[in-house]
């Protein structure tokens, strides 16, 4: 069940356009079906037609989340009795951060109720994400990530072409909880934490002043890649928080062109029931190289 309040923009408008604005993936046919079943209420009164709504009206929907938001098809990269490795699409958070929008983990739990994420990806970052299917594997994987025995590699398209083609960068990151932002500095400040980000230039497009980077994280702080690259003067294209709006508009990108591209298990100590994963690597093909050449192309992924 969802409850939403009509804002002034939709005063004296019809119900269906309002619902479609709130839930872009909600099909018109599903709205009419809900109306026929009287699964929609206005101010606690069940309705069966496309009523005119007023500012302040309370709309109650008895419609499942997967119908309201559109259930993403889980792209399973690898699975066994202990772990689940998935290709997360952009535009969806790993965990719930409010009561209005279901998370990627909500959908994963419908497939495997015991699955828990071992790390995080930003809402608008796509790519590989690791889930543990059992408590024993969750404990091991979280420790291995903490001990840096699982390597995570990313690809991103950035604005500007780095003069140094391969670099290991060290800096300090401070998190501002109130603004939901992080700030990167070259020197330690009170409350900051050290970050280490390495990159390699894979391809460039001088005419668009853009480059494709391979990125390796040695530390995994909130927004680390996005903020660190912006700090060095090469923000990720499509990044609305740390990027350049004018550039994002020119590229017609509303989500950052950043993907979790490869995960490598590099255990240097005993991993118990997960020892079989040691030296295994899983990766995705991003097609960012094509997008770099043609900004009108759509980035897709495949194994």
Give a nutshell description of this structure.
The chain has helices at 15-22, 28-36, 65-69, 104-111, 135-146, 224-231, 245-251, 288-293; strands at residues 2-5, 13-14, 40-42, 45-47, 52-53, 58-61, 75-79, 83-88, 116-117, 126-132, 150-159, 166-176, 181-185, 193-205, 210-217, 258-265, 281-283.
What does this structure look like?
By secondary structure, the chain is of the alpha+beta class. It has a domain at 2-69: Structural Genomics Hypothetical 15.5 Kd Protein In mrcA-pckA Intergenic Region, Chain A. It has eight helices and 17 strands. A hairpin with an 8-residue loop joins strand 9 and strand 10 (126-132). The longest helix is centred in the middle third of the chain and has 12 residues, at 135-146. The radius of gyration is 22 Å and the shape is globular. The protein starts with a strand and ends in a 10-residue tail after the last helix.
What fraction, in percent, of the residue positions are helical?
Answer: 10-25%
CATH superfamily of the domain at 2-69: RNA-binding S4 domain
Global shape: globular
Calculate the terminal CA-CA distance, rounded to whole Å.
37 Å
Q: What summary fits the major beta sheet? A: 11 strands, mixed
How many individual helices? Answer: 8
What is Rg? 22 Å
- Beta-strand residue fraction: 25-35%
Please identify, by name, the CATH architecture of the domain at 2-69: Roll
According to CATH, what is the class of the domain at 2-69? Answer: Alpha Beta
How many β-strands, per DSSP? 17
Regions with little confidence, pLDDT below 50 for 5+ residues: none
Alpha-beta classification: alpha+beta
CATH topology name of the domain at 2-69, in short, is Structural Genomics Hypothetical 15.5 Kd Protein In mrcA-pckA Intergenic Region, Chain A
pLDDT averaged over residues: 92
Query: Secondary-structure element order, as H and E?
Result: EEHHEEEEHEEHEEHEEEEEHHEEH
């Amino acid at each position: 069940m969802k409850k939403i309040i009509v804002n002034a923009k939709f005063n004296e408008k019809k119900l269906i356009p309002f619902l479609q604005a709130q839930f872009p993936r909600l099909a018109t046919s599903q709205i009419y079906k809900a109306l026929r079943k009287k699964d929609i209420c206005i101010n606690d009164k069940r309705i069966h037609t496309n009523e005119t709504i007023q500012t302040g009206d309370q709309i109650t929907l008895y419609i499942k989340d997967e119908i309201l938001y559109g259930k993403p098809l889980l792209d399973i990269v690898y699975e066994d009795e202990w772990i689940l490795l998935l290709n997360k699409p952009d535009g969806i958070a790993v965990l719930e951060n409010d009561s209005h929008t279901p998370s990627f983990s909500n959908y994963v739990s419908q497939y495997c109720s015991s699955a828990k994420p071992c790390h995080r990806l930003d809402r608008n970052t796509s790519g590989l994400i690791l889930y543990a299917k059992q408590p024993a594997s969750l404990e091991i994987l979280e420790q291995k990530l903490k001990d840096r025995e699982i390597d995570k590699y990313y690809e991103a398209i950035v604005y500007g072409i780095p003069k140094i083609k391969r670099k290991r960068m060290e800096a300090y990151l401070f998190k501002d909880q109130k603004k939901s932002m992080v700030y990167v500095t070259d020197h330690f400040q009170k409350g900051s934490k050290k970050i280490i980000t390495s990159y390699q230039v894979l391809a460039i497009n001088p005419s668009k002043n853009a480059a494709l980077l391979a990125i390796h994280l040695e530390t995994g702080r909130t927004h680390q890649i996005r903020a660190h690259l912006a700090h060095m003067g090469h923000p990720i294209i499509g990044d609305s928080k740390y990027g350049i709006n004018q550039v994002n508009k020119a590229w017609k990108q509303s989500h950052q062109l950043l993907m979790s591209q490869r995960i490598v298990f590099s255990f240097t100590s005993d991993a118990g029931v997960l020892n079989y994963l040691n030296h295994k690597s899983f990766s995705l093909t991003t097609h960012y190289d094509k997008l770099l050449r043609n900004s009108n192309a759509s980035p897709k992924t495949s194994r």
